[in-house]
């Protein structure tokens, strides 16, 4: 599978280089074969932009790490809690792989829709003559200063969000003080009855 030539080789090699270790066991320790396998797995997703390449690498990485977690969970001498943790990790990794696949599909659709919307050749814009400047008489400074915008009032009051938050915090603090005072009073009353 060929990869898009718009992606710089250094970016591709950096991403694939991080995936190579996932394939070393299957490649029998052969670094070249592992690199070829990692490149193939990324290219299967046909990334054409850096974002698509990154998501393709996520799909491969999360998928293979999920498989590795399931492999480890299948070891017979592993404690049950460790098996369950590994299985949970595998599920989470698999979910992340599916999310990355979904994002990649969305990016690809957006890219293709953008390419379809743009015409093959855009005509050169025709220049229009600039409008002649309109001279207006000098205005006094007071008239040039815009008036404050009219505020729509609901129920006779219009409070800013900051004011509302401060008031809510003040009420919460006041209620906490009242609750602490009543709890202290109840506690001292209980101590007086038992003592």
What does it look like?
By secondary structure, the chain is an all-alpha fold. The protein folds into two domains: 9-117, no CATH class; 162-195. It has helices spanning 9-19, 31-43, 50-73, 80-117, 141-144, 161-194. The longest helix is centred in the middle third of the chain and has 38 residues, at 80-117. Mean pLDDT is 76; it is low at 120-124 and 134-156.
Overall residue-averaged pLDDT value: 76
Q: Which class best fits the helix and strand makeup?
A: mainly alpha
Oligomer: single chain
Distance between the termini: 86 Å
Query: What count of domains describes the coordinates?
Result: 2
The coarse overall form would be flat
CA radius of gyration is: 33 Å
Task: Specify the helix fraction band.
Answer: 55-70%
Structure summary:
By secondary structure, this protein is mostly helical.
From the structure above, extract its key features.
195 residues, mainly alpha, 6 helices, 64% helix, flat
How is the topology of this model organized?
Elements: H1 9-19, H2 31-43, H3 50-73, H4 80-117, H5 141-144, H6 161-194
Helix pairs in contact: 1-3, 2-3, 3-4
């Amino acid at each position: 599978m060929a990869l898009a030539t718009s992606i710089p080789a250094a970016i591709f090699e950096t991403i694939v280089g991080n995936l190579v270790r996932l394939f070393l066991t299957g490649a029998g320790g052969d670094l070249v074969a592992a690199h070829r396998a990692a490149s193939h797995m990324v290219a299967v997703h046909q990334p054409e932009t850096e974002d698509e390449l990154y998501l393709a690498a996520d799909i491969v990485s999360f998928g293979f790490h999920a498989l590795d977690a399931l492999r480890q969970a299948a070891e017979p001498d592993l404690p049950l809690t460790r098996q369950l943790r590994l299985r949970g990790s595998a599920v989470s990794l698999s979910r992340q792989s599916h999310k990355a696949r979904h994002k990649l599909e969305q990016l690809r659709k957006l890219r293709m829709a953008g390419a379809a919307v743009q015409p093959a050749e855009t005509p050169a814009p025709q220049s229009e003559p600039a409008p002649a400047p309109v001279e207006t008489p000098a205005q006094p400074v007071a008239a040039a200063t815009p008036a404050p915008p009219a505020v729509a009032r609901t129920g006779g009051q219009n409070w800013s969000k900051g004011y509302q938050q401060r008031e809510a915090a003040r009420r919460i603090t006041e209620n906490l003080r009242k609750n602490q005072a009543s709890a202290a009073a109840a506690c001292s009353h209980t101590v007086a009855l038992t003592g």
